Amino acid sequence: MFVEDYMTPDPQTVAASASLGHAQDLMRTRDVRHLAVVDESGRLAGLLTDRDVRSAIGYDERLGAKLTVSEVMTADPATIPVTATLDEALSVLCYQRFGALPVVRGKGLVGIITRSDLLRAFYEVMGLDEPSRRVEVALPNGCADLACVFKALASCEERVISAVVSRMRRDGGEPSLYLRIAGTEAREVEKRLRDAAAIVLAPEHP
Predict the structure, then answer these.
(1) Adjacent-strand bridge partners of 8
(2) Residues 94 and 169 in one domain
């Protein structure tokens, strides 16, 4: 999955020479928390966030008319190419503690991707956007267990919405497989997995 699939294309921009008050008005009317800042040539010059604005003017709205965007923005912000994957964007946003990344094609701004966009992507990838049940299976033998699980699932009528292998379970043990099964019932899936000698963890259905 790629950044292009979840970014906001053609994001709202503001001129570096604009007043901070104008930028603040844009954020309110457009209901956004980040503005890409462009110079006179229309090239990306910085990134302005609502936090930047609050830090600059506090509760004194009059300061917005006295300051320009260029005085407050983050100049030469980190960017990510439109061809990047979601995990690459997630890595940058998590470890660099950014709230958003301008998305570029060459030197041109084509979008912006935020933490909220990545949360939405995770939500959809995990299959949480439709009725489903979670089933978790331990994988002490790695791929051998994984093959066993999917062989058992092949005989099930229930649809598998998503399947994600985690490096480590919450308790620090072996890796596990998180499944989302379509619908609101997963007893039959859990039974077939147990019959195949899979280790079903914390079943939702007693």
Answers:
(1) 112
(2) no
Of 45, 23, 17, 25, the closest CA to residue 35 belongs to 23
Residues 61 and 41 in one domain: yes
What is the distance, to the nearest Å, from the Cα of residue 205 to the centroid of all Cα atoms in its chain?
Answer: 30
Four-residue CA torsion sign, 113, 118, 119, 123: positive
Domain final residue pick, 106, 122, 138: 122
- pLDDT digit string, tens, across residues 17-62: 999 999 999 999 999 999 999 988 888 999 999 999 988 888 777 8
**Are 104 and 182 found together in one domain?**
no
Q: Are residues 177 and 94 in the same domain?
A: no
The string of DSSP letters for 101-149 reads EEEEETTEEEEEEEHHHHHHHHHHHTTTTSSEEEEEEE-TTTHHHHHHH
d(Cα 53, Cα 37) in Å, to the nearest integer?
13
> Could you tell me the maximum CA-CA distance found in the chain, to the nearest angstrom?
72
β-partners of residue 134 are 180
Q: For the whole model, what pTM was predicted?
A: 0.80
- CB atoms inside a 10 Å sphere around CB 78: 13
